[in-house]
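A reminder from the course coordinator: this example appears on the midterm review sheet, so study it carefully.

Given structure:
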C-alpha cells in the first residue's frame, strides 16, 4: 500500500518566517507524541481485537502536510497499515470544537449509510487536558495519496467518468434526509442519537424547517 506521506513535503513547503511554520514547530516541540502513538495502538486494538500484542506504531515528524487549520501526520503500524492523525495547529474555541464534532458526525453518517468513499474516523479527542496536550483525530488512509494542491481542470477524456462519479455521490447523499436544516450533532463524544443544531455561519442559524427559509434568509443577509 502506498504510504500517505509519499508526496508530503513537511517543513519544506512552508516559509520559516510564516506563522503557520512557527505554530507547527511549537506543536511538535511541546506535544507528547509517544503518548499519541500509544493512543493509536489502543484505538486500533479497539477496532481490531485480534491485533498482535506486539504491534507497534511510529509517527515521523518530518513527514507531514498541513492546511489552514490542521497538520496531518502519518501513523505507520508495524504490520504495514497506515492511518493519519489530524491535529489542529490553531487554538480551537467552543465554536470550532462544535464544528469539528459536527464534521465527525457527518463523516460517520456518510460512511455508515452510503458507499461514498470517505475516510473512516477511528477515534478523536477534543480536550487539551490530556497527556498529548492537543486535540487530535485518527482517520483511515484510503490507500492512495494526492500531491500538494488539487487539479484545477479535468482532462476532457475523463469528464464522463467524473460526471458519473459525482452523480452517484449526489444520488446517495440525497437519500440522507433529516427533519430540519442545520448541522448534525451526536454530542461531545459523537456517540449519541443524531440531532440537528444551529449553523453558526448562516444568516438565520436555525435549525430551519424548509429550504425556502434557508435560501430566502441567506439572500436577505
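Designed residues:
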Amino acid at each position: 500500500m502506498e504510504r500517505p506521506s509519499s508526496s508530503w513535503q513537511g517543513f519544506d513547503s512552508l516559509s520559516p518566517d510564516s506563522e503557520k511554520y512557527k505554530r507547527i514547530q511549537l506543536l511538535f516541540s511541546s506535544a507528547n507524541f509517544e503518548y499519541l502513538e500509544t493512543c493509536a495502538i489502543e484505538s486500533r486494538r479497539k477496532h481490531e481485537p485480534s491485533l498482535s500484542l506486539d504491534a507497534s506504531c511510529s509517527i515521523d515528524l518530518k513527514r507531514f502536510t498541513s492546511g489552514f487549520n490542521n497538520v496531518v501526520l502519518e501513523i505507520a503500524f508495524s504490520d504495514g497499515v497506515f492511518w493519519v492523525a489530524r491535529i489542529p495547529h490553531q487554538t480551537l474555541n467552543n465554536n470550532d470544537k462544535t464544528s469539528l464534532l459536527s464534521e465527525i458526525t457527518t463523516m460517520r453518517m456518510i460512511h455508515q449509510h452510503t458507499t461514498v468513499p470517505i475516510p473512516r474516523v477511528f477515534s478523536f479527542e477534543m480536550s487539551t487536558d490530556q497527556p498529548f496536550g492537543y486535540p487530535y483525530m485518527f482517520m483511515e488512509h484510503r490507500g492512495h495519496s494526492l500531491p500538494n494542491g488539487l487539479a484545477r481542470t479535468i482532462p476532457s477524456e475523463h469528464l464522463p467518468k467524473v460526471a458519473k462519479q459525482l452523480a452517484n455521490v449526489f444520488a446517495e447523499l440525497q437519500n440522507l434526509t433529516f427533519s430540519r436544516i442545520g448541522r448534525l450533532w451526536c454530542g461531545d463524544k459523537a456517540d449519541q442519537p443524531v440531532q440537528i443544531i444551529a449553523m453558526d455561519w448562516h444568516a438565520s442559524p436555525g435549525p430551519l424547517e424548509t429550504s425556502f427559509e434557508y435560501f430566502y434568509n441567506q439572500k436577505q443577509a
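The chain has a mean pLDDT of 93. The chain is about 35% helix and 20% strand.
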